[in-house]
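Hello Y.,

Per our agreement to keep a running log of every chain we model this quarter, I'm adding this entry. I've kept the format consistent with earlier entries: sequence first, then predicted structure.
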Amino acid sequence: MWNTLKAYRSSIILLVALMLGGMFGFLLPEMAIKLKPIGQIFLNLLFMIIVPLVAVSVMSSIAKMTDLKALGAILASIMAVSVMMAMIPAIGIVLLALAYDPAQGVTLELKETVETAGSMDFVSLLTANDFVGLLSKSNILALIIMSVISGIAIGQSGEDGRKVSALLDSLNTVIMKIIAILMYLAPIGLGAFFAATMASQDAELMGTFARAVGLFLVATLVYLTLGSTVYAWLGGGIQGVKRFWQHMLAPAVTALGTSSSLATLPVNIRSANKMGLNEQIAEISLPLLVNLNKGGAAMITALKIVFIYSLLGMEFTSEVFMLTILISVLSAFVIGGVPGGAFLGEIFIVTTLGLPLEVIPILVILGAITDAASTVINVVHDLTATQIIERINGKQYQAESVG
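Predicted structure for the entry above:
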């Protein structure tokens, strides 16, 4: 029991800090408002590291993947399946949340004015007009696109590219350590910021969290049963469905207990072998899917955006819908292996959509409560994704291996 709780220790500490901050804000609003600078300092520290984090982690990952050019067909399948298995739950939860508004008319009152009108400039969202523009947290999408292109170039640059890739790996290790250090301050920083945010809010706001979490858990249960069955059928027909449901329990329980896709990888590989999947394909696919196939993460990211737009009284337009799906897919890819990555995802949402900083603790609460359910989706669908990838590439890969 204690070992299980240890896996959630950081999330529990963060949730307790946010709850205490919220209570402090309701009970002593005048004092709580004075705590806002403490939270602002913490957020600014994270803002200063997010640009190098995104640039280095994306370039490093892409550069290493292009070393496997001989397995291009499998890699293309992994990417395509991962994108689709992130888009489908993201679209589904958005439509569900729009039909059943978890905010139910409750509005978040902020001193900062929120822009609700006007159309989005996708050119500015996806590109910057000079290099300096890439160094701003407001241009994260543009930075991701350029980092992907740079990673491909590094991977195709032979010996010089391998030297750069090794340097990026070392730099990525250092950045991860910086983030790990900063995350020790998260309970204090976010607790103070949430206290200041709640100081001017109505107690009804807390009820919206329960409705949002309930909506997510219902959607997760439906997607886990129906979605997994459809994916397994696509990968192996009726027999594929039977094999999946016979061997998915061990990875699902491990994911629930550890709240970590990476920690569940050995169990997933063992289950894939028991399912009779091609061993070589599984050993290539599953380690990559751990960081790329994040349907659960995409799902909660999409719900967070719909939820916060409703709380702020902002119109959820078709442009916002498309951007929500894009952010959900990209954030799942970028933050997958980052310590405290889910929290950095909130910054990604806020900076890309230009939302007030006060909403960050609210998004963190949703992410922390739903983390275990999201991880279960991520993990079990690594198995169904491998089934689909084997069906696409199995015969050709076996022929190439024999040859």
